[in-house]
Design a protein that fits this description.
There is one protein chain. By secondary structure, the chain is α/β, with parallel strands linked by helices. The chain has two domains: about 15-50 and about 295-410, Aspartate Aminotransferase, domain 1; about 55-295, Aspartate Aminotransferase, domain 2, CATH 3.40.640.10. Helices cover about 45% and strands about 15% of the residues. The chain contains 13 helices and 14 strands. The protein has helices spanning about 25-35, 55-70, 80-95, 110-120, 135-145, 160-170, 195-205, 230-235, 260-275, 280-290, 295-320, 345-355, 385-410, and strands at about 40, 105, 125-130, 150-155, 160, 180, 210-215, 240-245, 255-260, 325, 335-340, 360, 360, 375-380. An eight-stranded mixed β-sheet has the order 2-9-8-7-6-3-4-5, sandwiched between helices. The chain is globular, with a radius of gyration of 22 Å. Bound molecules: pyridoxal-5'-phosphate (PLP). The site of pyridoxal-5'-phosphate has 14 residues, from helix 4.
Length: about 425
């Protein structure tokens, strides 16, 4: 990565205060590098849309125009077409959640759901609770509303609910506006919140009277292990965000939210202000796709593909990464989270990695303070082919080995560096 280009902004000083802390998403910034053909990208969490049969998708879009053109090309209702919400009711039932049409609002991806919830809940200075690390897009959506973000660390079993409890004791009843969690194959951690911890999280949320937002884009992409019931299946008060991005295609920009009625009413008002209504054309296309039977086989194929890619990445990490590094072993989803020795700086290493033809997202992007997690990196295994994954991990292993050699040289010289940072190598 070259140095960021500073653009003179003659409108500086006239923007709303709320834009002050909104940072560009590091993942979006890496898209440019990721699109270079000589670079193996572990950066963006991009679904393998080339595995969605073009003919099936085209058929659904074709039917939407030819058979339902009058509604597909018209403004629709703000909550989304009832036919689409019926499809969503079925999808939710399959993962153990019982909802009705009235419990659902269709959104422009789960991302819009996050933005709308932030708009509805957060005043400047309010405390919200997230996992640490957490999804950059959520941090970006929340930060415009100027919250104080408290991050709860995770281990291999997901959010440390014992630490959540400590934090809640400190904050008190209603001391935070909400708890945001990605319980399945967390982005970026790759870990899954266990069933006992899910129950404990809900108990704590109830005791401290704090709403829970469950963001679940990856739940249906499980490679091994048993299905763990969503939080929403255990408690009707949970706000649940779902999406078609990973089970069909992100290009649709279509997702949904289920929430208790009063919250949904507020969200709907915020949504009307944002877009009046979602795209009826996209909604009819999704209905058509999911009313057919092919999507199940496509989803099975996608899951198999991601499992192969995960296996390739884990094997290559075992082979090429130094013993000092540790990483998670996701049972599904898109991401592996790597923790390097404290003194290594994944952000400072990125330029060298790109030079070697591989890219990833440095860990600090997933924390609101932009400092924590500097010795970590997120590796997305969803996009590259297995051979490229093995080669990319090998290249990255070499970059790491270079850094470690430098560190060892420091030790031999009797000078232990704090963090090997920008100035080094
Ligand atoms: C945890 C999480 N939430 C939300 C989203 C956004 O999904 P959508 O494409 O539905 O807006 C993503 C996308 O990667 C994600 O990883």
């Amino acid at each position: 990565m070259g140095t960021a280009r500073v653009v003179f902004d003659r409108w500086d000083g006239r923007y709303a205060e709320r834009m002050r802390d909104v940072r560009s998403s590091a993942v979006r910034d890496l898209f440019a590098a990721a699109s270079r053909s000589d670079i193996i990208s572990f950066a963006g969490g991009m679904p393998a849309v080339d595995h969605v049969p073009a003919k099936t998708a085209a058929g659904a879009a074709h039917d939407a125009i030819l058979e339902q053109g009058v509604t597909a090309l018209q403004y629709g209702s703000s909550e989304g077409r009832p036919e689409l919400r019926r499809v969503i009711v079925e999808l939710m039932a399959e993962i153990g959640v019982r909802v009705t049409l009235d419990d659902i609002v269709a959104t422009a991806g789960a991302q819009q759901g996050l933005d709308l919830l932030a708009k509805v809940f957060i005043d400047p200075g309010d405390t919200i609770i997230t996992e640490g690390p957490t999804y950059v897009g959520a941090l970006q959506a929340f930060s415009a509303y100027q919250p104080n973000v408290v991050c709860i660390p995770m281990d291999d079993d997901g959010m440390r609910v014992d630490l959540l409890e400590e934090e809640l004791k400190r904050l008190g009843v209603r001391g935070a506006k909400f708890i945001y969690t990605i319980p399945n194959f967390q982005n970026p951690g790759g870990v899954t919140l266990t069933a006992p911890r899910r129950r404990r999280l809900l108990e704590l949320a109830r005791d401290y009277d704090i709403p829970v937002i469950e963001d679940d884009p990856y739940g249906r992409l499980r490679f091994e292990g048993g299905h763990v019931k969503p939080l929403r299946a255990l408690d009707d008060d949970v706000i649940y965000l779902g999406t078609f991005s990973k089970i069909f295609a992100p290009g649709l920009r279509l997702g949904w939210m289920t929430a208790p009625k009063p919250i949904l009413t507020k969200v709907l008002l915020a949504k009307q202000a944002a877009d009046l209504c979602g795209s009826a054309f996209v909604q009819v296309t999704a209905e058509r796709y999911f009313l057919g039977t092919r999507w199940r086989r496509v989803l099975q194929g996608l899951t198999r593909t991601y499992a192969e890619r995960r296996n390739a990445m884990l094997e290559a990490l075992d082979e090429h990464f130094p013993a000092e590094a540790h990483w998670t072993r996701p049972e599904g989803g898109f991401f592996v989270w790597v923790t390097l020795p404290e003194f290594l700086d994944a952000k400072a290493m990125l330029a060298e990695a790109v030079e070697q033809g591989v890219t990833y997202v440095p860990g600090d992007s997933f924390f609101p303070d932009g400092r924590t997690g500097r010795n970590c990196m997120r590796l997305a295994f969803c996009y590259a082919e297995p051979d490229d994954i093995r080669e990319g991990v090998r290249r990255l292993g070499e970059v790491l080995e270079d850094r470690l050699e430098l560190y060892r040289a420091f030790i031999v010289a009797g000078a232990l560096p704090g963090r090997i940072s920008e100035g080094a190598a």
